[in-house]
Design brief:
By secondary structure, this protein is an alpha/beta fold. The protein contains 11 helices and 7 strands. The radius of gyration is 19 Å and the shape is globular.
Length: 271
Amino acid sequence: MNGSKDIRIKESKLTELIKAAGKLAVAFSGGTDSTYLLYKAHEVLGDNALAVTVRSQVLTGEEFEWTARFCESSGIRQAVINYDVFDSEQFGDNLPDRCYYCKRSIFTNIKKTASDNGITEVADGSNTDDTGDYRPGMRAVKELGIISPLMEAGLTKNDIRALSKEAGLPTWDKPAAACLASRFAFGEKITAEGLARVADAERFIRDMGFDGIRVRVHGNIARIEASPEDIELIAYERTRKEISEELKRLGFKYVTIDMDGYRTGSMNEVL
């Protein structure tokens, strides 16, 4: 790794933060950030580190299964919480503060699971890049006393990818992921069927060889976001036709390609 003194200082600070916790439960979704944090927590604390994964309608089956395989192969303890996101009535209403209520409920459950395992400190995988977007869920994290060691250590997303690559973690170049609910425009009702439709649509496009795509939902319109280099390939006549036919079969009436490409938080641009 083209390591710098700066990244080593951040890594050292992260180690000290984890040591200070003594025992740590990590909210583990299988993304780049939470995977690196869990890896580091296990490296520092051994069996005093616990992965807590919430299995719900906003995490695809493939993502959940990956977390289980990773923990098993790494010798990391994992606790699984089966959670129905629709237990929070605010979730389905999908107002701009939806994430606050959802995160508060989820992390309340994670804290209880951690406590049941004799652990008081719970950590999430937020990093310094997460401060620049509209994230009401961060308010819930702070209110519940959840710590964010990656952020506190000053680590950026690129830092975490570099350190993950050095550690040999398979997630070092994993495309950014987000809860499936983030695909719906605010005010658009979220249903279990809608979440499954989005998951199926994105899986279909990924299986064609396109990583890091999003299918955003605006009523009966599917707006596809892809990396700039993939937009032309997706728009190729045969590919475009296959995607359009499949997404319409899934229930969308119109299928569009966003010419600006994928960007984090695009659903927040109207806020």
